[in-house]
Amino acid sequence: MKIGAKVWAIAEGYIPSYSSGPQPEMLSHETACILNTNEVDAEIDLTLYFKDREPAGPYKIRVGARRTFHLRFNNLTDPEKVPLGTDYSSVFVSNVPVVVQHTRLDSRQSANALLSTIAYSQP
Amino acid sequence: MKIGAKVWAIAEGYIPSYSSGPQPEMLSHETACILNTNEVDAEIDLTLYFKDREPAGPYKIRVGARRTFHLRFNNLTDPEKVPLGTDYSSVFVSNVPVVVQHTRLDSRQSANALLSTIAYSQP
Amino acid sequence: MKIGAKVWAIAEGYIPSYSSGPQPEMLSHETACILNTNEVDAEIDLTLYFKDREPAGPYKIRVGARRTFHLRFNNLTDPEKVPLGTDYSSVFVSNVPVVVQHTRLDSRQSANALLSTIAYSQP
Amino acid sequence: MKIGAKVWAIAEGYIPSYSSGPQPEMLSHETACILNTNEVDAEIDLTLYFKDREPAGPYKIRVGARRTFHLRFNNLTDPEKVPLGTDYSSVFVSNVPVVVQHTRLDSRQSANALLSTIAYSQP
Question: How many Å lie between the alpha carbon of C28 and the closest alpha carbon of chain D?
Answer without folding.
Answer: 14
